[in-house]
């Protein structure tokens, strides 16, 4: 028997909301989803009227839904924001080149300005070239560190006040689990925050308007709205650790849908005992970007690539930073260790 929409009772329900279990028609689902994002934005005071906001856009479902919903809400509730799209081109043939075509179409569909910054122009290396040198084991470390900085640099070029990213509830719950499993309390504290304030020069505040949106609902929203997005996975995505955390979380979700929110709440409520040593944020003495070490991670990874020592930025080699800065040569033994990569 057809089920009626539990919200309007006029239309036939076309879906059961993964987050609440309610049976809804398409229109009522759109309203429920958009209103939740609106409430998140208002409750956390994510934006101020007149701000320039860069939407980190990859062409994937999350950032496409984010761009769409931000545009809808900005108009519906007169946020007074100047929205623009900001994309990073990692230089991955057969993946990012195609997804950037999607972003370019989104730019026209949503009539928003678009800026693309590339690893090649910023660092002189594409991910294709990096994978050739480092293999498929640590490639995502390079990519993640470079992306974080590339977004900041793009945001500065665009002169935006804030960047918003498409991180959803599932992403955040996964990150909470990973940080617990790794014992990374500094990151655990930061990863549930809905917004980061400026942490120093060269860092643009970031926020996550989809923090409480379930991935399954984002997919449904994109599907029913017929949004134009790119759904292929990165060709270099072995990132096994996150994959296990994701599978574990999906298993939990299938037994109890609230698991995703429960894990996020756990992350939010865990506090750090007084006296626990936390890293102190300073700035990189080479590029000026935020760093808790003398050299930031991006500069160390780049130095490793340029010297043909790809392992330099992987693992802990902080004691070598002084040598790198003063251009002192490394010993043969040090070089040998840093050259070896397991493919
Ligand atoms: Fe970069 Fe890894 Fe993501 Fe591919 S999967 S885009 S290499 S971080
Ligand atoms: Zn640096």
Automatic annotation (TrEMBL):
Every Cytoplasmic tRNA 2-thiolation protein 1 C-terminal domain range: 282-312
Catalytic EC class: transferase
GO biological process entries: protein urmylation; tRNA wobble position uridine thiolation
One matching Pfam family: zn-ribbon_14
InterPro entries named in the record: CTU1-like_ATP-bd, CTU1_C, Ncs6/Tuc1/Ctu1, Rossmann-like_a/b/a_fold, TilS/TtcA_N, tRNA_thiolation_TtcA_Ctu1, UPF0021_CS
Purpose of the protein: Plays a central role in 2-thiolation of mcm(5)S(2)U at tRNA wobble positions of tRNA(Lys), tRNA(Glu) and tRNA(Gln). Directly binds tRNAs and probably acts by catalyzing adenylation of tRNAs, an intermediate required for 2-thiolation. It is unclear whether it acts as a sulfurtransferase that transfers sulfur from thiocarboxylated URM1 onto the uridine of tRNAs at wobble position.
Name recorded for this polypeptide: Cytoplasmic tRNA 2-thiolation protein 1
Lineage of source species: Eukaryota, Metazoa, Chordata, Craniata, Vertebrata
């Amino acid at each position: 028997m057809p089920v009626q929409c539990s919200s309007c009772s006029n239309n036939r329900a076309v879906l059961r909301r993964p987050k609440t279990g309610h049976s809804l028609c398409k229109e009522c689902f759109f309203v429920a989803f958009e209103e939740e994002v609106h409430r998140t934005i208002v409750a956390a005071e994510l934006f101020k009227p007149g701000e320039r906001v860069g939407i980190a856009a990859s062409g994937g479902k999350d950032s496409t839904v984010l761009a769409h919903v931000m545009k809808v809400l900005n108009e519906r509730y007169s946020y007074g924001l100047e929205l623009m799209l900001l994309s990073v081109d990692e230089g991955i043939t057969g993946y990012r080149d195609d997804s950037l075509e999607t972003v370019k179409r989104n730019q026209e569909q949503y009539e928003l300005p678009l800026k693309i910054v590339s690893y090649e122009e910023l660092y002189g290396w594409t991910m294709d070239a990096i994978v050739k040198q480092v293999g498929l084991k640590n490639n995502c470390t390079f990519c993640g560190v470079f992306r974080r900085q590339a977004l900041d640099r793009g945001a500065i070029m665009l002169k935006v006040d804030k960047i918003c990213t498409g991180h959803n509830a599932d992403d955040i719950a996964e990150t909470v689990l990973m940080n617990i499993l790794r014992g990374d309390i500094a990151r655990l504290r930061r990863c549930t925050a809905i917004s980061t304030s400026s942490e120093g020069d060269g860092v643009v505040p970031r926020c996550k308007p989809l923090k409480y949106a379930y991935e399954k609902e984002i997919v449904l929203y994109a599907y029913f709205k017929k949004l134009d997005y790119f759904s292929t996975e990165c060709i270099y995505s072995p990132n096994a650790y996150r994959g296990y955390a994701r599978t574990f979380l999906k298993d939990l979700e299938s037994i109890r849908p609230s698991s995703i929110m429960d894990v996020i709440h756990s992350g939010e409520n865990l506090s750090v005992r007084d006296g626990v040593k936390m890293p102190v944020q300073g700035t990189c003495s080479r590029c000026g970007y935020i760093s808790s070490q003398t050299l930031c991670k991006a500069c160390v990874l780049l130095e490793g690539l340029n010297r043909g020592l790809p392992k330099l930025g992987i693992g802990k080699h902080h004691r070598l930073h002084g040598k790198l800065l003063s251009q002192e040569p490394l010993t043969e033994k040090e070089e040998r260790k840093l050259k070896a990569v397991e493919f």
